[in-house]
Amino acid sequence: MNQKLSKTAIISIDVETDWGGRLPASTETIRGVKVGLPKIFEILNQYQCPATLFINGEIVPYIQEEINISIQKKFEIGSHGFTHRKMPELSKDEIIKELAKSKAILEEYTGQKIRGFRAPQARIPEGLYQYLKQTNYEYDSSVFAGKMPSRFNNQNVPIEPYLQDNIWEIPVNSLPLIPLPMGLLWIDLFQLSLIQLLSSVSPLPPIVQVYMHPFDFIPAYSVEDLSIPWGAKVWYTRQQGSALKTLNCLLYWLQQLGYTFRTAGDVINSCSMS
Ligand SMILES: [Zn+2]
Taking the chain (274 residues) in consecutive chunks of 10 residues, what is each chunk's mean pLDDT? Predict the structure, then answer.
């Protein structure tokens, strides 16, 4: 393990439309970004914590202001695809288009090189790493440790970044003793105190990556004509007021444990050097 990377925490935010990216992009469907994201930024500020934002290409024209703020804060911006469609259901050409189009629009609006990618719903299509190489990405962060029925089943995921087909993969670790990835919503659902207790039996890995969504921080609103699986409905309509407090306490805890907050790209820089 690269010494520089021991006890590193990456805070990643998947930026998409509300209801898990299921709504078409418009000014009406990004309440999470408009209301929730500033609240996340406020908390990150308190801990001088940088973030990595994986942004959906199709909402970019609606969120120039939030992109500008992220650039000012020196946050990293990566791609979360152009649309939020399930990539394994797309053709090779469609996948390449998703990767290239999102990279192009993000580079246009940020004036920066887009290096990283995260697949919508962490659903990895076959050949992804080759397509990432083809479209000039440097790293991927779509491997979520743990299991979510029909989405992914990743047991024994490496605990540190690794190279696959010349693309770095920077996985999201699982919760201690719970086979689910380290998402803020899961931590909120199980309660941080339980996660802390379990981590005394099964300590957090040297590189921790937490993921969250801006809509995790706003009350869910009802939408017509949206077929949403029952499980997701329960997920999105739960009490959401506690997410902010959970994020605050989580960052405090990681800091107390001696973790340094870094962006995913920054971690990849250290990996490439070692
Ligand atoms: Zn997403």
Answer: 82 95 92 95 97 98 98 98 97 98 98 98 97 98 90 87 96 96 93 97 97 89 72 65 92 98 97 84
Distance 148 CA to ligand 1 centre (A): 14
Which residues are near ligand 1, the ion (C-beta closer than 5 Å)? Answer: 14, 16, 21, 120
Q: Determine the Cα–Cα distance for residues 170 and 177; give it in Å rounded to an integer.
A: 20
Residue owning tokens 């973030």:
51
Residue ranges of domains in the chain: 3-273
Centroid of ligand 1 to alpha carbon of 54 (angstroms): 8
C-alpha dist (Å) from residue 198 to 145, 195, 205, 241: 17, 5, 13, 24
- Multiple choice CATH, 3-273, 3.40.50.740, 3.20.20.370, 3.40.50.880, 3.40.50.720: 3.20.20.370
